[in-house]
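Still learning. Show one?

>
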Amino acid sequence: MGTIIEAAAAATADDRATAPSAVELADAAARACLERAGRGPDDLQLLINAGVYLDRNISEPAIAALIQEDIGANPDIRPGGGQGTLSFDVRNGACGLLTGMYLVDGLLASGTVTCGIVVGADVDPEPGVSEGFCFPGVAGAILLVSDDTRPGLTAFKLKTFPEFAGDFESHVAWHQRAGDGQGRNLLTVDIDEQYGAHALECAEATVRELAGEEGLDLAQVDLLVATASVPGFADALARRLGITAPAAGSSEALARAHTAAPAIALESAPLAASRTTLLVSAGAGLSVTAAVYRT
């Protein structure tokens, strides 16, 4: 049984008259993804949220549950214990969507579910106050289903390179104003100038290890989808790997997209026409997630 990418969609802050929240963007991306696949929200048996940067730095309750409620995915308990929608959050930085796909793939393969969606959205938690936040407000969603007739996702590789952990760090800390004792939580994002180079180095090492384990000839890759919140990352990785096939990253306007980047790239990538697609994400950790997708 194969795990098939049935649809991908993105939603940007520019689509709205007023700046939307991360949850609102995630809702919009999930709805667009379902519509593109010709499915309704009750078809979802699994919903994973992978967003990192949220309004006012909220972390509880699980954002996935809020998205599930907003889009109306099996909001009520079904009589007799029928299949509903399981929703939960996964945090793995810019690798979050691919990590979520890895989890959905496992549950699809076990037969526990037959349809799942992974959603990720990021916005500036405190516009004008956060320090170093450089990502556009955007959400992405990827819908996955099981299919006995196609291979789909056939392999994953998740690696972390702690020697480069300091290249990309985010933290929230309490900042107290002088004089009146008042203050607020402030997000600070620190990205070292070497992050892009190290992300490429680690992504190449991860892909080559995956290719060796799976007997994958990189010359046979028809499409590379690679993201790391770095402009030009996909093309640069393709050159390092010797892949001459098309390389898809986020669009130029969204080249620094964070969690949603793989969905943005897949939204316009010729996935159906590619026999072998390589999916790669890199981010804080420094972490890399890679996957092989076959049609």
Q: What stands out?
A: The longest strand covers residues 2-12. DSSP finds six helices and twelve strands in the chain. The helical segments are 22-37, 63-71, 96-110, 195-214, 233-241, 261-268.
